[in-house]
Amino acid sequence: MTIIQFRHSRQALENLNMAHSPLPPLNSLRAAEAIGRLGTLQKAAAELNVTAGAISQQIKTLEQFLGIGLFDRTEKGMVPTAAGARLLPGLSTGFAHIRGGVDAALERDDNVLTVTSGVVFAGKWLVPRLGRFRERHPGIDIRLSTDNHLTAFDHDDVDLGIRFGRGDWPGVRAIKLLDQQILPVCAPSLAERFKKPGDIARGPRIVDAQSMFVWQDWLDIAGVNHPIEGTEIRYSDAYLALEGAMAGHGAMLGWPVVVQDALKNGDLIEPFNICAPTPFAYWLVSSERRWNRPLVRQFRDWIMEEMLLFQK
């Protein structure tokens, strides 16, 4: 009984070791599969975009790893040995499964459009208008991601992005949506406080800590020479700054995308009607490969129409 148990345990250990034995290097397996399918070092090298010498070295590495010869070198090419003939079908099946898995990962639903945007543009401009796009294209499933990082479209599985800047990003197609302007806005309750542009310099002023612009940019355009003084209330982002402005905490240095709906609703007023231009704009961007995808064209046409309506 003891001997039988020992033999069973030994076999189990051998099986365990085989199950966890390291596989040969993947590149050497790829080289063997390509040679078995194509028959020569040169053809395999051309397919894998390496030299014939590199393919030959990969086969030597694999044969040394396995301790067996896999190919006979002949004048007509590489001929599988008996061991190679047993190995090749499994390699072909394995790489076919890998290719199938990669294709499945890259497969896209033709009805899904993925758009990325900064959170402020998405929340204050895009989301309130997306219903009209869905009415026009009910079969398209929009996936909206709010991210302030630059998107690598072909790697991040994103079709379109809305970016803020100068429009000179490398490797993307870009079309301008809206020039950026800055203007003071405040709650109606502060109308008496801000009667002339110089009153902004005396405060109270709201500051968006993430903004690319400062109050001095607007004051210079408005011709205000007074030193900046008085109270400043600082918020961490534009959303909070906007809420503070509507609550009457001070004047906010806004821009149309963020403040126009609040102006139309009467939550904010524009006391001076003086807009300062900037060198920046909102841009619709995508990769060259995705630019003419039908869903991308449909969204592009729609958002350009919406921008024209917005600017009227």
From TrEMBL:
<dbReference type="InterPro" id="IPR036390">
    <property type="entry name" value="WH_DNA-bd_sf"/>
</dbReference>
<protein>
    <submittedName>
        <fullName>LysR family transcriptional regulator</fullName>
    </submittedName>
</protein>
<dbReference type="InterPro" id="IPR005119">
    <property type="entry name" value="LysR_subst-bd"/>
</dbReference>
<feature type="domain" description="HTH lysR-type">
    <location>
        <begin position="24"/>
        <end position="81"/>
    </location>
</feature>
<dbReference type="Pfam" id="PF00126">
    <property type="entry name" value="HTH_1"/>
</dbReference>
<keyword id="KW-0804">Transcription</keyword>
<dbReference type="InterPro" id="IPR000847">
    <property type="entry name" value="LysR_HTH_N"/>
</dbReference>
<keyword id="KW-0238">DNA-binding</keyword>
<comment type="similarity">
    <text>Belongs to the LysR transcriptional regulatory family.</text>
</comment>
<dbReference type="InterPro" id="IPR036388">
    <property type="entry name" value="WH-like_DNA-bd_sf"/>
</dbReference>
<dbReference type="InterPro" id="IPR058163">
    <property type="entry name" value="LysR-type_TF_proteobact-type"/>
</dbReference>
<dbReference type="Pfam" id="PF03466">
    <property type="entry name" value="LysR_substrate"/>
</dbReference>
<keyword id="KW-0805">Transcription regulation</keyword>
